[in-house]
Structure formats: structure tokens, C-alpha cells
Structure to design on (250 residues):
């Protein structure tokens, strides 16, 4: 059994006893509600949901599921990833107390389960991830926990003892980010990485920071390079292919 010292142990029935097959890392979530509300919901058998930990805006830590057991937080990711829910709404940043509490959980997971003190945006990676990176297989919650908390992972890792506060690569901004006419330095950075990977299907190198048909063609070439085919190589970035592209931070 693995229960974190200092956490408020509040076991819930919604879990699979002995079902944690491995620990590749920890997935951050947002509750879209309160800590106490989630505590109540996870006790309802009809919810079919739970998480290993929950963190309130005031820094309270609830542990609902022993880390030897499988929480029901991210569908296909449940068997190999631990989970932390955070009080708040999508788009919120963690409070200072929440960040410190989450860092203490991550530090404990590092010591207890070998969770890597690094950011990951891929289901094939290791470290501190986020719910939306799992795409449809993880429930299709592409905006969970939201960009502000995704960006705070570096600070969480630093506070947990992981050193540098800056992640190496740009987090996946979500599939809805990639729409015609979207202008962003993230798109320009992606453009240059696609060219570097030999997936240049651009007609012109102008307006590299604006999403258009050339980006879609080039990204489809990248998807095919990774082995995707058919509708899986549609030119729209997904969290796994994005993580493998290694788009630098902007």
C-alpha cells in the first residue's frame, strides 16, 4: 500500500483494488468544482469516477485512492498513470498554496514510485502530464486542466526538487487551437520543426506564424512519418504527435 504522509486519507469505493499496473507519471486535472464537492461525488457509485489525490485552493490534500489501486480518472490512462484533481474551473491557475501542495505530492510520488521530475505532453512519455494529452482514449477532455495549469508544471517540478523551471518544449495547445487564420509564435515554431523533420509541404515560407493549408499538409506528412494513415493523418495536431515533434518553447 502507498498512502502519502500528511494527506487527509479519505478512501472512496470508486477504484480498482490492486489495479495500478505501473506508474509512468502523474496526470493533472481540474475539478470544474470544489474539493468537497468532488469528495462527495467520488463516493457515489453512479459517478464511476475518482482520482488518487485532490488539492483545494487552500492547500488541503485529500487522498482518495491508495496508489497501489487504480483510480478512475482518465480512462485508458488509468492503469499506468496516477492522478491529481485540483479545485477550480477550467482556465484557472493554481493558487500558491495549491501549487505548493501539488509539488509535495509530486515529490512524494518521485520518492515512492520513481515519477520523473519533468514535463511530458505524450502518453508515451514519463513525468508530469495533463488530462487532455491522452485525447479521445483518455475521455476527450482536451481542455483539462487548461493552459494556465499546464504552464505551471515547470514551477511544480522545481518546487518538488526538479531543478530548472522551464520545460524544454511547447505544451500541446489543444486541437481547437489549430484553425484557419490563427496567428501565433507557436505556429511559427511548429512550422520550422516540420521543415527540419523533412515534412515541408509549404508553398511559401511567408506568414509562417499563421495556420493555413500548408501547415495542414506539412503536419499530415509528419503524421505519416510517424506511421499514421487514413483519417489519423488528417493534418490536425494531436497530443501524441505534437509531443514527438518537440516544438521549442516560445
Amino acid at each position: 500500500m502507498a498512502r502519502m504522509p500528511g494527506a487527509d486519507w479519505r478512501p472512496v469505493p470508486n477504484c480498482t483494488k490492486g489495479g495500478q499496473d505501473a506508474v509512468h507519471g502523474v496526470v493533472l486535472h481540474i475539478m470544474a468544482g470544489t474539493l468537497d464537492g468532488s469528495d462527495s461525488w467520488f463516493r457515489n457509485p453512479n459517478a464511476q469516477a475518482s482520482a488518487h489525490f485532490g488539492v483545494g485552493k487552500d492547500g488541503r490534500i485529500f487522498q482518495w485512492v491508495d496508489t497501489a489501486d487504480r483510480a478512475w480518472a482518465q480512462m485508458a490512462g488509468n492503469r499506468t498513470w496516477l492522478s491529481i484533481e485540483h479545485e477550480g474551473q477550467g482556465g484557472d491557475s493554481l493558487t500558491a498554496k495549491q501549487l505548493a501542495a501539488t509539488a509535495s505530492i509530486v515529490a512524494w510520488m518521485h520518492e515512492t514510485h520513481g515519477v520523473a521530475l519533468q514535463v511530458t505532453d505524450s502518453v508515451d512519455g514519463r513525468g508530469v502530464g495533463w488530462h487532455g494529452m491522452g485525447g479521445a482514449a483518455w475521455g476527450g477532455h482536451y481542455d483539462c486542466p487548461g493552459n494556465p495549469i499546464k504552464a505551471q508544471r515547470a514551477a511544480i517540478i522545481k518546487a518538488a526538487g526538479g531543478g530548472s523551471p522551464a520545460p524544454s518544449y511547447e505544451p500541446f495547445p489543444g486541437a481547437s487551437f489549430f484553425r484557419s487564420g490563427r496567428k501565433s509564435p507557436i505556429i511559427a515554431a511548429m512550422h520550422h520543426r516540420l521543415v527540419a523533420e523533412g515534412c515541408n509541404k509549404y508553398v511559401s515560407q511567408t506568414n509562417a506564424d499563421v495556420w493555413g493549408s500548408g501547415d495542414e499538409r506539412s503536419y499530415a506528412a509528419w503524421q505519416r512519418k510517424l506511421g499514421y494513415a487514413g483519417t489519423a493523418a488528417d493534418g490536425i495536431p494531436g497530443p501524441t504527435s505534437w509531443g514527438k515533434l518537440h516544438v521549442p518553447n516560445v
In short: The radius of gyration is 19 Å. The chain is about 30% helix and 10% strand.
